[in-house]
Amino acid sequence: MTTNKNGPLTDYLLGRLSDNEIQEVEDRIFADEAFFDEVETAEDEVIESYLNGELTREQKAGFEQNFLASNRRRKRVEIAMALRKRFGVEVASSRAVASIPRRSARFWDAIRLAFSPRPLLAGAAALIAALVGWLAYRTPIPKPAITSARVSPPQAKAVNPDAPVPALPPVTEPPRAASIPAFVLLPSLTRGSAGREFSVPAGVAEIQLRLRSSIDITPGEYSVSLKTEEDRELWRKDMHYSRASEVRVNVPARLLLPGRYSLTLSAVSEAGIREELQDFGFEVKRR
Amino acid sequence: MLSHAFRRVVLLSASADALHRFLGLLDPDPERAGAIYRRLHLKLQFFFEGHFRTAHHAPELADESIDRMIGKLGSELDLAPREIQTYLLGIARFVLKEQQRKRRFETLDFEPMDLQVPIDELLDGDLRRDCLDRCLAQLPAEEQRIIVDYYAYEKREKIEAHRGTATNWGHSGGALRVKVFRIRRSLEKCIRKCCETRRRPTGTGPGEMPKRMEA
User: Fold this and answer.
1) Does B123 contact A1 at a Cβ distance shorter than 8 Å?
2) In terms of pTM, does the model score above 0.90?
3) How confident is the model at residue B114 (pLDDT cuts 50, 70, 90)?
4) DSSP per-residue string spanning B153-182
5) Which of residues 177 through 196 in chain B touch A, CB cutoff 8 A?
6) Alpha-carbon span A93 to A95, nearest angstrom
7) Cβ atoms within 10 Å, residue B192
8) Which chain B residues contact residue A272 at CB under 8 A?
């Protein structure tokens, strides 16, 4: 039997059920062996649907925030991705990172401090802490810059088995720092030319590259490919672009070791054929 | 985690009889008891994975739940085999509530750095590739063929191929998919074991039978 990817088991796995519904599923898991078999199958189906790009936006958010919170499930997805790579099946783009809003820890520290027993200075400490906490709570933590390109997963298709498998997003909360470091790239005059230079700051997970193309980028399907100086593809992202302005892509910082790279912007036709539009060369200096 | 593992060893040492009794309750045959134990552990992991605050520590909390149950068996708790799962679920719910209370003020201080590991670094890439090849080679020929066929086609062609393949192997389309998932799960176990064995030759992972009890 196949699990309906819009059914209650899928919702359970993606963390989208109410507390009562969750409890019902849990009761059945422990009471009904056949039902647990169904839940295990549903887990396989959900992984498959995610890698095929078949989940809705809300489901995908649920997958990345809830399903991937478990190391056991992340390893399952990793192995499923490795199998696809082994047999030359592309993984749908999964670059949208779900960010979990995070209130200021200082607010909660202040609350705890205010209520913990302290001799002599309890009242004064609590008052000061509450005031600090109130001020901290009022100050919002800036969210990281979000790419303006909306990611639309492409259809799965057979590709070169040596093509890099895009990494799944880490389960993380946005960093306290203001935004993802961003660099503007200009088109290379010739392929392989060095272009702009920059250093990747330590401790960042992503770098935003803003492609200031000299040609009109009209709304449609595009692909951005990161290649080494030896023309080896390290990473690719397919995207649907809806605005006529610069293209912005978030590249995993761990891929950008010191060296020369190029980012190739391609238009993707309805038939899935890529037409290279422009190259953007750059050089990463030592951190 | 180290203190958890140490506490677990101490607990097991102190209540070895209770553990034996627990396994005996699951099944008189030690092999089957081990299989049931692992399935129970997996159910408990699913349980804790269904709640965001405990998902990341699901294996350890599953161990904790089973340990508490074994501890209670040591104090003369008498359960019929069919009652074990219900009782275990009750313990798991209690453990969950404890975790939720404990984490209420911890969550916002919780540094999620250990969750920031990209998924393709949980298993070392080269090791994984090598183990994948080994495990694929160990599959029976029929299962190898099913896996190869499943992954070897483009999405649209895959749907047609499934129908064709399903006819060839005598399965309905849905049953073929389930079979592929089962094969993949056995591949996952093989790959995980291969990776762990080659990284850490001895030791007991979460959900596994304590080695001393397997003898």
Assistant:
1) no
2) no
3) very low
4) S-HHHHHHHHHHHHHHHT--HHHHHHHHHH
5) 177-178, 181, 184-185, 187-188, 191-192
6) 6
7) 19
8) none
H or E element that contains A223: strand A220-228
A226, containing H or E segment: strand A220-228
pLDDT attached to residue B60: 92
Please check whether residue B179 is in contact with residue B145, taking contact to mean a CB–CB distance below 8 angstroms. Answer: no
The pLDDT value given to residue B102: 74
> Which helix or strand (DSSP H or E) is residue B74 part of?
helix B58-74
Task: Please identify which residue in the block is written with the tokens 């906490």.
Answer: A133
A-proximal residues of B, 109-168, CB under 8 Å: 109, 112, 115-120, 122-123, 128-129, 132, 136, 147-148, 151-156
Confirm if A247 and A221 have CB atoms less than 8 A apart.
no
Would you say residue A114 has pLDDT above 90? no
User: Which value, to the nearest 10 degrees, does the dihedral of the CA atoms of residues A166, A167, A173, A174 take?
Assistant: -40
Residues contacting residue A96 through CB under 8 Å, at least 6 positions apart: A60, A61, A64, A151, A169
- DSSP letters of A183-216? EEE---SSTT---EEEEPPTT-SEEEEEE--SS-
Report the gap between the CA of B10 and the closest CA in chain A (Å): 26
Cβ-defined contact of A29 to B43 (cutoff 8 Å): yes
Mean pLDDT of chain A: 72
Q: Any idea which of A131-135, A143-147, B110-114 has the lowest mean pLDDT? A: B110-114
Partners of B154 on chain A (C-beta within 8 Å) are 89, 156-158
Find, among A55, A60, A63, A47, the residue nearest to A14 by Cα. Answer: A63
Chain A touched by B85 (CB under 8 Å)? yes
Q: Nearest 5°: CA angle at A15, between A10 and A17?
A: 80
Question: Looking at beta carbons, which residues of chain B come within 8 Å of A254?
Answer: 118
Partners of A80 on chain B (C-beta within 8 Å) are 184
Q: Return phi, psi of residue A233, to 5°.
A: -75, 125
pLDDT > 70: what percent of chain A? 60
Least confident of A33-47, A173-187, B110-124: B110-124
Can you give the pLDDT at residue A4? 60
Contact B120 A165 (CB under 8 A): yes
Chain A residues inside the 8 Å CB shell of B39: 36
- The pLDDT-based confidence of B207 (bands split at 50, 70, 90) is low
Q: What is the pLDDT of residue B76?
A: 55
